[in-house]
Amino acid sequence: MKHILIVEDSPPTGTMIKKRLEKTGKYTVTWLTSMQETEKLLATEGNEAFFAALLDFNLPDATKGEIINLVVAKNIPVIVFTAFVSEEVRQTVWSHKVVDYVLKEDVLSLEYILSLLDRLKKNGETQILVTDRDEEKLGKIACLLRVHRYDVLTADSGRETLKILAANPKIRLVIAASEVNDMDGLTLIQKIRRNYGKEDLAIMGMVYAGDHITAARFLKYGANHCLVRQTFLPEEFYCMVRLLIENIEHIQQLRSTSLIDFLTGLHNRRYFFITGEKLFASARRQTITLVCAMLDIDFFKKVNDQFGHEAGDRVLQHVANILRNRLRKTDIVARIGGEEFCILAVNMDTTSVHRIFDELRRQIEQSVVVLDDGMGEVKITVSIGIATHLGNSLDHMLKKSDFHLYEAKEGGRNMIVSDL
Known about the structure:
Elements: E1 2-7, H1 11-23, E2 27-32, H2 35-44, E3 52-56, H3 66-72, E4 78-82, H4 87-95, E5 100-103, H5 109-123, E6 127-131, H6 135-147, E7 151-155, H7 158-167, E8 171-177, E9 179-180, E10 183-184, H8 185-195, E11 202-207, H9 212-221, E12 225-228, H10 234-259, H11 269-284, E13 290-297, H12 300-307, H13 309-326, E14 332-335, E15 340-346, H14 353-366, E16 369-370, E17 377-378, E18 382-387, H15 394-410, E19 416-418
Parallel strand pairs: 1-2, 1-3, 3-4, 4-5, 6-7, 6-8, 8-11, 11-12, 18-19
Antiparallel strand pairs: 9-10, 13-15, 13-18, 14-15, 16-17
C-alpha cells in the first residue's frame, strides 16, 4: 500500500479524508495538523516515505501556503486543498509545481483526489515523448510532466523522435512542437502516423499564439489535440494529457478484453487465429518454424458432474497456469474450446518436440488441483495431439493436431500422438 501524508488542521475534514483513503485498501495515512509537525516529521523521514501529500493551503502556522514549498522540496507529489481560490492563491499554488488543487466545499473533491492518486500510481509506468528544438521550452514541458510522475523521454529532432518511438513501444503520448531540428512538426506527425494509429499512440501539438492554420493542419494530419504555447494553463495541460492517455488505455483494455479468455487469462480463439495466421505466413516463407499442439483435459465432464462447474473452472485455471509457466513467451497459448487448449510453438527444435510436450503432460499428471471451500483435491490428465508439418493453411494444421488428439483419446488418453 502507498503511504499518504495529510496536513489539515480541521478535525472533521482530516478525519473524513483519512477514513476515505484508508477505506480503499490502497493507502495508509499519516495525518498531521500543522507545518511545525510536518517539519519535524520530514526531518526524520526519507524522501521515499510518502507516495504523495494532501496539504491544506491555510494552516494556523502557515496561512499563505508556505507548507507547499516545504513538502515539494522533499520531492513528494503535492495535492493542495483550499476553501477558496483567488487568482493570487491559484498563482501561488501553481508556482510550486503541485499536482493539482482541490476545493474543499466541492462534494466530489474526495473522489477527485482518489482519481489523482490512482493516476499518479499509473503514471510511473506511462511513457511520454516530448520533442522540440527549443531546449528551454522542451525542459518546461518535461518538468510539468515529471511533477505528475510520468516517465518522460525527450528529443530535439524528427529523426531522434522516430528512433525513440521505435525503441520504446510503451510510449502512449507524443507532444510535438511545430518545429524540430530537421523537419517541421507537420511532417513529423505524418511520419509518426504512418506507423502508429490513434488507437496506439496519441499526439498533442504545441503551436504559437495566433497560428491557427498550423493548429488546424496538425489536427488534419493526425494530432489528437493542440495547445497554444504562451497561453495554456497548467490545469488545461494536465487534464488534456490525462484525457489523451486514458483514451489510449481504454482502447487497449477493450482490445485486450476481446482477445483474452476471461476465465483462464490465456488468449482466446479469436487471438489465436489473428496472430496464428501471421505466424503461419512467416513459417511458409521459412523465416520461422511452427509446431501446433492441441491439448484436451481427460474426463473433464466427470469433474463438473462430481464436483460442480466451479470445480471445473478451477481445473481449467490450474491447467492454464501450468501452460503459461511451462511454455515460452514466444509461443501462443490459447483456450479455444471448453476444455481444449492450443499451442503454437515458434522455432521449437523438432527433435525435442515430443520430450517437451511429454514433460508438460507428466507435470499436469503429477499435479494436484486443490478445490475451493474445502471440497478436496482432483487429479487430472491430458491428451495431446501434435502437428509439425505446415500443410496448406493454419486451419489444416489445426485439424491435423486435432486428429492426432482424437487418436490419443482413442489410444487410452493421458498420452501424446504426433506426426513425427
